[in-house]
């Protein structure tokens, strides 16, 4: 079901087209992805697992898991969540591992076109956008690549207003920040943008960094730069419970993508797992979209998010059950119910406290983990830091990793707020331009200012944990 009214958002849909799912015609609109069009048509099962043939559906909606793989025009392993629809496109459910068509001839790397710049930025979210903008302003030619069909990253789905200082977009909704930063990128003639382009490898080629990528699942590309900023963001965490692989179990970000970016109603009734800021904000956003939130369950003894968010949700009648966890999802091909229970002091479910909720959506707002796969492959030193969300790269105060010329910013450097991602992006972008030898030393003042702003933003109670984590990965270079 597509949303036609929303108190904050207005959905501009492209030209109507027809796609075919399992031979049946489905109405879609140019500019939306396969998964969004199928969800709007009520289709939840996108594939079946190879071993036990269990149904699979959308989970992350950002191309970082394998839950939504489908066959498109005979080609398997297509990520339906980030692949745009095309008129006449034929989509089939993928059943386990499937072979490429015998007629398919993969292109050779030697035939791949090459693009060069002073600085290459991987990732078009808040960190990547700020890195590209400031690297360009510092005098660098910049290539910005992102595997999504639009710039903005997580910002394009955030309808709430940001906290902080005015210069850091306080009081501005995330969707509007995405538009502002995207427009700033477009204004700069020294930034070239490549969308629907997935970076698959980072290599050293002489004095330059070489990024290999695939555009629109078919075209091989190469990008070289004197320095590189990796701002690949994060991916949703999963937790263990019975039937957690059923279609209808989503990461919180996937639900935001469905309703806030593409205007598709995720379901009728939702159980949210996790009462941090993401879970609380998601509850309010679901209510804005006309979806009933049955409850929020939180394993901790108290709510983890800001009081202002929790108060707003409670005023709307949503119960927040602390010291509770989900035991199982129920349903045959998709979620039909969720069973939760209270936890004792040893984090064990208490028999007899089970509650059953009739829902068709279970939203997991249980945190993110940094996407560091490309950084790991490139040889950057990796360290597990619980305070930063998992495995992260070791870096200095200018966001340069242990591999010279490779910088990191945003959630791929550690899970924080969008505001800190933008400040880190600014630092990394300027530092990358300095490393490339195209920025004047005067730009060091801007780095120091951004560092002070970061320290100020992290000075609150929610920042103490992050600061402890940063101490564990920060190296001082001579």
TrEMBL record:
GO molecular function: 2 iron, 2 sulfur cluster binding; oxidoreductase activity
Ranges annotated as spanning the membrane: none
KW RNA-binding (keyword) present: no
InterPro entries noted in UniProt: 2Fe-2S-bd_N, 2Fe-2S_ferredoxin-like_sf, 2Fe-2S_ferredoxin-type, 2Fe2S_fd_BS, FAD/NAD-bd_sf, FAD/NAD-binding_dom, Metab_Enz_Cyan_OpOx_G3PDH
Keyword Transport: no
Keyword list, A-Z: Oxidoreductase
Domain 2Fe-2S ferredoxin-type span(s) in chain numbering: 15-97
Alphabetical list of Pfam families matching this protein: Fer2_4 (PF13510), Pyr_redox_2 (PF07992)
PANTHER family linked to this entry: ANAEROBIC GLYCEROL-3-PHOSPHATE DEHYDROGENASE SUBUNIT B
Name used for this protein in its record: Sarcosine oxidase subunit alpha
Upper classification of the organism: Archaea, Methanobacteriati, Methanobacteriota, Thermococci, Thermococcales
